[in-house]
Amino acid sequence: MNLGFLASHNGSNMQSIIDACKAGTLQAVPALVISNNSKSGALERARKESIPCAHISGATHGSAEGEDEAILDALQAHNVDVVVLAGYMKKLGPKTLAHYAGAILNIHPALLPKFGGEGMYGIRVHQAVLAAGEKESGPTVHVVDAEYDKGPILAQRRVPVLPDDTPETLAARVLEQEHRIYPETLQRIVTGEIRLPRP
Ligand code: GRF
């Protein structure tokens, strides 16, 4: 299974998946890293790991449509089977969404369907969880479709919300589990335990 990553910032989730591939606990190949941010940690990590990588954005490719086409071309050129969104801050274009329908995954740092949707990203998610007085939070791995955070849920893991939590301490507790559940879920796809909803 060839993996194509899309990441905008640090790329720690992507790194946890690359590490699992290297350790053999995930039988997959990191085939390509794409970032819309030329200065992202994700691109730096890709170079360090000698994984092919590309900077593709509306700015580099003229328009949202050009960006969509460039992303799809790159994924296909590297024989990507499954697209892994790992902190990708942009919406995918219609061509990429259609071609990879049912084979695009995302990780969200809360228990969807709660605390998802437009504008719910980064520290805002954890702020909202604390403001709602939730007793539990945790990451969700789900299939991506045209709507934010709405596709079928593949896996979730629960962590406690502690009385003295700040958004940052909660984020760190959730992130630790993100780094486990994302590679584990991909391996469950490799073994056939989880079937992707390909049309
Ligand atoms: C993670 O919290 C993930 O849940 C969200 O974006 C963040 C990415 O972090 N989608 P990193 O770039 O993988 O470190």
Fold topology:
Layout lengths: L1 E5 L5 H12 L5 E7 L5 H8 L4 E3 L2 H4 L2 H14 L4 E4 L8 H6 L4 E5 L14 H9 L4 E2 L2 E4 L9 E4 L2 E2 L6 H24 L9
Parallel strand pairs: 1-2, 1-4, 2-3, 4-5
Antiparallel strand pairs: 5-7, 6-9, 7-8
Helix pairs in contact: 1-7, 6-7
This protein binds 5-O-phosphono-beta-D-ribofuranosylamine.
Concise account of the structure shown:
This protein is of the alpha/beta class and 199 residues long. 39% of the residues lie in helices and 18% in strands. The protein has two domains: 101 residues, Rossmann fold, CATH 3.40.50.170; 84 residues, Formyl transferase, N-terminal domain (Rossmann fold), CATH 3.40.50.170.
User: Kindly, what is the distance between the CA atoms of the first and last residues, rounded to a whole number of angstroms?
Assistant: 18 Å
Sequence of strands across the biggest β-sheet? 3-2-1-4-5-7-8
Largest sheet: 7 strands, mixed
Beta-strand segment tally: 9
Q: Helicity, in percent?
A: 25-40%
Structural class call reads alpha/beta
User: What's the pLDDT, averaged over the residues?
Assistant: 97
The percentage of residues in β strands lies in 15-25%
What is the highest CATH level, the class of the largest domain? Alpha Beta
What's the structural domain tally?
Answer: 2
